[in-house]
Design brief:
The structure is a homodimer.
Chain A: H1 10-30, H2 37-44, H3 48-54, H4 58-78, H5 91-104, H6 109-119, H7 123-146, H8 156-177, H9 183-199
Helix pairs in contact in A: 1-2, 1-6, 4-5, 4-7, 5-9, 6-7, 7-8, 8-9
The structure holds a DNA duplex.
DNA sequence: AACTTATATGAATAAAAGTTCATATTGTCA
DNA sequence: TGACAATATGAACTTTTATTCATATAAGTT
């Protein structure tokens, strides 16, 4: 392989972007394994050679796309609720936060589904997802600790992981697989469960 | 393709079983995509032609293996705790059940991981997993309803799904990915969360 | 305009892997 | 033992797809 090119002119920046956009939509639509390089460049309207001018191979393209996507996912969750940290966390705050998590999956449920599938069989993909999990768990943990006086949780570190896993998987089931049960009922039960867990018996409940 | 053979003699029953066993171990060890048919029959000590005498293709082999595996998984969870339904469910019963779930992953964490990965990208695999989810959720729900008088849960149907998702994902994270946090701490927090959710304020708590 | 650098092209290459089928061997039963 | 059914074999076929690289075109610079 010849060395990767760093885009310098506008047209090459465009070309690179076109490839990423085309891949993103195709991956979401036809799956990652179901999409080959030819289709990507065809949809992008560029030649196959351009692909390998700007990306080492298909895998690094995917990793870069995933990092971008998870950054957007993370912001979609926490941006709308960034003031909860400051206030005292209440039942409604928890529900709002969980609703924000569910809403974040609307960016591209299919791309998320496809890449999430890979995390269990591909260590590189998993690494990117672990970075994401860590920052989400850290956020939850700091929420727990900034409300420490009202909380009855004995092990906030483990509790944060458990809460994160619970919310994540309910969202995944609802988003990726679908359920007989309406999303809102799941969100309600999830909110109840977490609220009661965190603040059961608390005076300010 | 010529029609599939139905094993009639002992040796063909053996051949078929050898192929399934070899595939099971290779899939766990090298991944499903990382294992090709040649390797499977080589490890099984039979010829490639035999493979296609007894299995339509690689996919149907996998589906059959997965059904078998999930039957074992299901039994591993519920067999050890089948009397909990009868007794009144207490804090310890919940922990025992959750520990039983975690233990069930010891059958073959790697095979489980590999197939679980596929459920989000392969509808056929997903169908088998959904059958599994349904019977697990049904079990949980009937536990909730047989202890109805003591429960404070407003929506047992949705609660069963939420509880199932929470336990499943914590087990998956601990089993497939690993965590800084010791398994037992996660189990403890999970048990607490579920117990409090189900019985908060209950007299018999 | 001449020269250099950046960018675009796509036919050709190369490697992998699933599946078939004509042939050979083994078992069964009369 | 002979004949038919069941089973086993593996070279050959087919298809698919990622990646390379020699060549052509466009942009920037002096």
């Amino acid at each position: 392989m010849t060395a990767l090119r760093t885009p310098k002119q506008q047209r090459s920046i465009q070309t690179r972007k076109r490839i990423m956009d085309a891949a993103f939509h195709l991956y979401a639509k036809k799956g990652i394994h179901g999409t080959n390089s030819k289709e990507i460049v065809e949809k992008a309207g560029v030649a196959i050679g351009s692909f390998y001018s700007y990306f080492k191979n298909k895998k690094t393209l995917l990793l870069e796309m995933l990092e971008d996507y998870l950054d957007r996912h993370y912001l979609a969750i926490w941006k709308p609720v960034e003031d909860i940290t400051i206030n005292e966390m209440g039942r409604d705050d928890i529900k709002v936060l969980i609703e924000s998590v569910f809403a974040a999956y609307d960016i591209s449920p299919e791309f998320h589904r496809q890449t999430h599938a890979l995390r269990y069989s591909d260590p590189d993909i998993n690494r990117v997802y672990e970075r994401e999990r860590n920052r989400e768990v850290t956020q939850i943990r700091s929420l727990l600790e900034s409300n420490k006086s009202r909380m009855r949780v004995t092990d906030p570190e483990a509790a944060a992981v458990v809460i994160h896993n619970a919310v994540e998987n309910v969202a995944h089931t609802a988003t990726f697989i679908g359920s007989q049960i309406e999303k809102q009922r799941l969100i309600d039960q999830l909110s109840d469960m977490i609220f009661i867990f965190l603040l059961h018996g608390s005076r300010s409940a």
